[in-house]
Every structure is written in structure tokens, then in C-alpha cells.
Design a protein that fits this description.
It contains six helices and seven strands, in the order E-H-E-H-H-E-H-E-E-E-H-E-H. It is an alpha/beta fold. The radius of gyration is 17 Å and the shape is globular.
Length: 199
């Protein structure tokens, strides 16, 4: 089994979402002796954003790309290869201003590629990354679960579903900005959810 952990916090240390992702990965590893774990920290290894030069590189046939264009596409290729090789994907996703981080958005922009991780058909788009399990650790400063201010989960469900990743489970750590007692309660609740998700 191959486990891919994506840490999308802007913090390389002290991140609540990374704590959740670490705990989820540890449980998957414990349940699957011999499994391998690859961690990608998008703060320590920031991926370039999708810009005009990148679009030009992606839409240029491979044999016609400049060296610079080929190098840029290769960065996305590496992320796609990691996802394709993974049996389990664990994502640490903090909420910044009611949404996902720019780091995580750049990761999605990199791995969503037509005819590689999804394709368009006469019946609509079809994801090509099916058969994988996804766990997402969500950390929030306030309380947003199942409420109108939670734009993260609908977006993540849309993106994962678009790529064929339909088996997704979420673990929440909310109220992290509401004082020490709230933090302790949130961490205990998150740990309980991890235990329930990964029996």
C-alpha cells in the first residue's frame, strides 16, 4: 500500500491540520504493515501557481515545448505521478478565509489534467483516479461544520469527485482560535473522529 500525505498549511511547523494528517497517516500505517508513506509539505515545497506561462506550456505539444516549458510541466507531472501511485491519500486542509489554502488550490490545479486524471465524454466528465481512499483533516479557527460558511467541503467534494475520488472521509478540528479550552476540546473530538473513521 502506498500512502500520500499532502500538508497544505502555510506553516511548516505547528499546524493543526498537519497534526490531523499525521495522525490519520499513522493510523493507516499501523493498520497496514509494510505500507509506504510519502509526505509532501506544500509550505516547505511550494508548487508554482497556475499562470499564463504554465497554460501555454501545458497546451504546447510535448515535442514542441521549450526547455523552460518542459521543466514547468515536469513539476506538475511529478505531483500527478504521486497521486496515481497512491492507494490512500491523506490531506491536511486548514481553513483560510472560509476556503482552502492557495497551496492546496495549486496542488489541485497541478493534478487536474485532461486525459490524464479526468476526461470529458459525451456524458460529461469522468475521473480517472478511482479506487483510492481519501482522508481529509480539516482545521478551523471557528465553528463552520455543516454550515453556510463552510465552502471547503463542497469544493473538496467537487474536486475529488471530478477526479474520480469518491471515497472521501473528513475529520474536523474546529474552534482552534477560540481559546485553550476550545483547542483541547477540538483536538479530543478530532482524535475521537479518527478512531471512528479508522477502526
Amino acid at each position: 500500500m502506498n500512502i500520500l500525505q499532502i500538508n497544505s498549511s502555510a506553516r511548516s511547523t505547528g499546524s493543526a491540520s498537519t497534526r490531523l494528517a499525521d495522525a490519520l497517516s499513522a493510523r493507516v500505517l499501523a493498520a497496514n504493515p509494510g505500507a509506504t508513506l510519502v509526505r509532501r509539505d506544500l509550505a516547505a515545497q511550494p508548487h508554482p501557481v497556475l499562470d499564463e506561462a504554465t497554460l501555454q506550456a501545458l497546451f504546447t505539444p510535448a515535442d514542441q515545448r521549450s526547455a523552460e516549458q518542459a521543466a514547468r510541466v515536469a513539476l506538475d507531472d511529478a505531483l500527478i505521478a504521486q497521486v496515481q501511485a497512491a492507494d490512500v491519500i491523506v490531506v491536511g486542509a486548514p481553513m483560510y478565509n472560509f476556503g482552502i489554502t492557495v497551496q492546496l488550490k495549486s496542488w489541485f490545479d497541478a493534478i487536474a489534467r485532461a486525459n490524464v486524471t479526468f476526461k470529458y465524454t459525451e456524458n460529461g466528465p469522468v475521473g480517472l483516479l478511482s479506487g483510492k481512499k481519501v482522508y481529509v483533516g480539516l482545521s478551523r479557527g471557528g465553528m463552520h461544520r455543516n454550515g453556510p460558511t463552510d465552502s471547503q467541503v463542497p469544493f473538496l467534494n467537487t474536486m475529488f469527485g471530478f477526479l474520480g475520488l469518491s471515497d472521501v472521509q473528513y475529520v474536523y478540528s474546529e474552534g482552534m482560535g477560540m481559546g485553550p479550552d476550545a483547542v483541547a476540546k477540538a483536538q479530543a473530538q478530532a482524535d475521537a473522529e479518527i478512531n471512528a473513521v479508522l477502526v
